[in-house]
Amino acid sequence: MADTVMKALMLDKTPIDGKSVLIVQHSDGSPFLHSLLTQSARQGRRICLVSFSQSVGYYHNVGTRLGWNLNNLLIKNQVVFIGGLHTLKDSLQFQCPSNPFNFLFNPALCPLQALFLSIESVVHGWTEQPFSLVIDELDCLLNLGIEPKEVIKFFQKCHSLIQTYSSGSLVVSIGVTPLDKEIIQCSTLLSHWSDLILTEKGLQTGKSRDLTGTLTVKWNVSPLSEQHFHFKCFDRGIKMFAPGTAVL
Amino acid sequence: MAANVKISSFQKRIKPSNPNILGTKISAVNSMLNVSFGVTSLDQIIDGGLPLGSLCVVEEDIYGSYAKIITKYFMAEGAVQKNFLLSASLNENPWDLLNNLPSLVTEPRETNITENREELKIAWRYKNLTLEDNNQRLGNAFDLSIPYVMPETQKPNLAVWGEAVTPNLQRGTGTLKNPNCLSLLKAIEKAIKNWELDSYNSHNLVRIVVSSFGSPFWQLDENKSSLSTDFTATLLLLKSIVRSTNAVALVTIPHQLLNQSLVSRSRHLADVVIQLKSLREDPHLHDLMDVHGILELKKVANLTSLKPILGQDGTTTYGFKATKRKFKIEKLHLPPAVDDDKSSPDHSSSLGCSSTASKANLDF
Asked: Minimal Cα distance from A175: which residue of B?
């Protein structure tokens, strides 16, 4: 199943090194982020996973169903996890300045500085090897009270980080809803800077057993194409269909 | 591309996590521990109950009355299972919720088969359940008209947070500024520490209920021009607390009073989102006279795999009936057509496809 997803995203022919991917999620769950994580793990790339609203256990559980073991990779130091719900909880209890979420309780001139520095320190150690910087649900930063301009600056810093290392790639997911103007503005701006934009939407008429949702794949660089797919999520992966062929 | 990295999904079997936490059942679907809502029909549509460590947001109906019933059932189930209970509310006295819980009723059938119970070696978890449905593990039934008398031994298991308890609040200095939210989070943390629920081998859990979070009493709208991010930040922090301890949180929000962007953001954050709509709100719903309101599962997050959880038969819209004694959730269906004169349009008449012509023309 993973191969059909990569084929649909055209990532089997185009290498992901040096590219930035933006996943715009209108619906819940992040199946394509997990697919990209699985692909990076299979290819042996180093992964720096930054999460704001999920715990390590969640990525591990979904990953085991998709065929890779996050805990093992964490032990081997092939994957570094930054953030997560336990760090958020620690920031409530301990309030130490190196905690990336310390901006919630103590005033800071540049609230995302601690977060960016921790990412940078991880990535500096991986200069020659292919790596992926995966940031899940960037909109959670807006939920935590950071202003949109700070979030944009953070994204720009991460983007320039991978531009300096030709073998890195950036995957950012952002959850949007049509009612929320701030987030729509952020996601539109970020989509101008990204090479590949995946827009995941649920079906317009509600939920269905046959299909989970629709995906729009748009390349801003070399393949320069825009394609639509339907997809269905299973326990073990995602199946992609051309629109209308799901029930065949 | 390092093609020779072996990614194996084989895992050595390790000791399973302690299943003896009071009030939880192992889910048949994904082997996580589930906590019952108290309303068995609600448990069934969410595939067994609320997973331990998750945050459930209930979007209240217009006056909050049905949401209050759900919170009462939730706490009553906790009282019966001897869980710790924490009630937080700024709208009313938080002790009101804990003092007015429905009491347990036992099904009459149980008396016939009690003599068989001694011979059968049933696991302790199944002792209280009826044998009505052999396939499904049913929960407890409650009667709303009979108040529950909390036994003295359980009184130390209760805690509250509310206006009377928290004077002299300080505003926060970071991005989370609202003093009520900060005080609530600190109180929850303190309670969890006192009850030792964050240690690995704790055998109990705490059920946290925050009633009407985001109502004007919380004073979240300090600044009219921007969205109050204290609301979402508090929900996220609450989620982080319950995820790492033996806790489950139910937050009811008066979503009609809040900015719709805030409500949609809170839907992204929570694990389970249920929306209640009473018949009073929507004149089109009067056609469904059988039920008292609509319950919609706006979101049920799957914490272990990608597969979406869709509810029974793939529907996410259910009806609920609330009588003086019971609260029950059932599938929506058309009420029986009694008269030929009374026109009974399809319940999708709210989409405008019902015929306004009198049915008498089609009399056969």
From this structure: B268
Cβ pair B174:A105 closer than 8 A: yes
Complex ipTM: 0.92
Q: Report whether A194 contacts A220 (CB < 8 A).
A: yes
Q: What is the pLDDT of residue B346?
A: 42
pLDDT, tens digit, for every residue of B163-218?
766 666 777 788 888 888 888 999 999 999 988 887 777 888 899 999 999 888 88
Q: Which of A34, A43, A111 sits opposite B2 (nearest CB)?
A: A43
Q: In one letter, which amino acid is B54?
A: S
A230, A5, B271, B53 alpha-carbon torsion, rounded to 10°: 160
Which stretches of B224-329 are DSSP H helices? 229-243, 260-269
User: What tokens were used for B114?
Assistant: 């009690």
* Tokens matching residue B138: 């049913």
Element (H, E) at B179: helix B179-194
Please give the model's pTM, rounded to 2 decimal places.
Answer: 0.85
Half-sphere exposure of B1 (CA within 13 A, CB side): 12
Q: Is the dihedral of CA A63, A64, A65, A66 positive or negative?
A: positive
The residue type found at B70 is I
| CA-based nearest residue to B232, from B179, B185, B176, B161 | B176
C-alpha to C-alpha distance for B234 and B237, rounded to whole angstroms: 5
Work out whether the CA dihedral B148, B152, B157, B158 comes out positive or negative. Answer: positive
From chain A residues 74-113, the ones with a CB under 8 A of any chain B CB are: 85-86, 88-89, 92-93, 102-108, 111
pLDDT for residue B116 is more than 70: no
Rounded distance, CA B235 to CA A73, Å?
31
